[in-house]
Amino acid sequence: MIRSGLILLYYYIRTLAISRWTDRKKLERWQEKKIMRLLNYVSRKSPYYKKLIDRICPGQWRELPVIDKRVMMEHFSELNTAGIDRQEAFEVAMEAERSRDFSPTLKGITVGLSSGTSGHRGLFLVSRKEQAAWAGTVLAKVLPEPLWRPQRVAFFLRSNSNLYSSVRHGRMKFRFFDLLEPVASHIQELNHYSPTLLVGPPSLLRMLAEAAMRGSLTIRPKKIVSVAEVLDPLDEKIISQGFAKPVHQVYQCTEGFLAATCEHGTLHLNEDIVYFEKEYLDREKGKFVPILTDFSRFSQPLIRYRLNDILTEKKEPCPCGSVFTALEQIEGRCDDLFYLRAESPAESDGLIVVFPDYIRRVVLACPGIEHYAVIQHQVELWEIQLALENTGDSAEEDRSDSPPRSAVESQIRAEIAQLCQQLGGLMPTLQFTEWSLENEQATLSAPPVKRKRVERRFPL
Ligand SMILES: [Zn+2]
Question: Is the fold of 2-332 the same as that of 337-456?
Fold first, then answer.
């Protein structure tokens, strides 16, 4: 335990020290050295990489194959450096999830399962040292005040794991809240606990913000951090109103801790632990898919690992002066890119990509929307679910300040028509329906499985 504490402290201090660097070239040279160290280790311990690394000169590591979750899972047993068998790891992780006892490890390594549909769940391995390093880095980037000041952290997660429960240190209190429990049951507990730092997915944070506005939730956290889902501008606005605070973000997935917001609220890539290559979808607009090389993970190496996410670079530098790449936003999964039938099919393979961000902007250009979701069922069919503010009794519609539903629908229709025209695509059929929590397969008392406001529901 003492050793883990020291590693945590080392990474905490290291992260703060690197955050003060002002020379990007210095960062790049340092990253290259760290990657060499990783490759040296991996070439000795991972049968999968040994063969590949033997064939190249060390400086040519960018010629190693790009892998993804499918390849990672297919070669899991040969790829990891701890000699852990995939089947055995699966059994341990499934049992931990079923019993909600996350203490068992395999060869001293925590095994976890990523969320996803049953056939597509990924396995991840994290050693004790990696957990401590992760915790130190997260604390340095997320805590509103130095580590040695007393803090109370409330962390909402879908399921517990050793990875998270490791964040207990010194004067810091850490409490885990299970997202699967009804939100109402957490309110009293939160009021009593009075967290200084509140961390959870935006769908949950919004419910808490609404409870704060109603007066049932009385907490005054110093910092609010959104994780695990795309932070939609609509939800961001309400969360920051409810708590009278800006909403910070952490971009963390089973693949790693990838980005966090600075004091200006700008997301910066965590280039002090991960090297990012960019596969551009639209270079001019700065939209890219990240390919990660995580030089802080040794038990399950992530080398040139293609993530299924779309990120947008920020055009202007952030006023904080960080050497780390600034992001405009995290847009969502590549699976949620929409497509339009091209007006002139010969020119662009018949289909035109529509980024989730365009769809959000089109819908939110209309005032009076409380909740929305846009679902592409087929190329030609988009469903637009809407819940409007102050609608209440329809007879009272005229008395509210918000525009009537028909006006909102017409405006969205016109905005989408204009977008299609700009992109050179044919206008799809729009089907307007009522948005409700039930549509998200949720009940009024529990948050949705994973909120998505822009979603494509057919494979390409
Ligand atoms: Zn910044």
Answer: no
Q: 371 C-alpha vs ligand 1 centroid, how far in Å?
A: 30
Cα(247) to centroid(ligand 1), Å: 14
CB atoms inside a 10 Å sphere around CB 262: 18
**Which CATH superfamily does the domain covering 2-332 fall into?**
ANL, N-terminal domain (3.40.50.12780)
Residues 6 or more apart whose CB falls under 8 angstroms from that of 186 comprise 156, 177
pLDDT at 442: 47
**How far away, in angstroms, is 325 Cα from ligand 1 center?**
9
Tokens 């399950």, residue located: 300
Question: What pLDDT does residue 42 have?
Answer: 96
What per-residue string of b and e applies to 15-54 under the rule 16 or more CB within 10 Å gives b?
Answer: beebbeeeeeeebeebbeebbeebbeebbebbebbeebbe
Tokens for 282?
A: 């639209």
Model confidence pLDDT, tens digit, residues 429-449: 999 999 987 766 544 445 556
Domain 337-456 = CATH 3.30.300: yes
CA of 327 to the centre of ligand 1 (A): 9
Residue 164 has pLDDT above 70, yes or no: no
265 C-alpha to ligand 1 centroid (Å): 7
Q: Residue 390 in contact with residue 400, Cβ under 8 Å?
A: yes
Domain boundaries, the chain: 2-332, 337-456
Specify the pTM: 0.90
Residues at Cβ < 5 Å from ligand 1 ion: 262, 264, 266, 318, 320, 322
Q: Could you report the per-residue pLDDT of 352-392, keeping only the tens digit for each?
A: 999 999 999 999 999 999 999 999 999 999 999 999 987 55
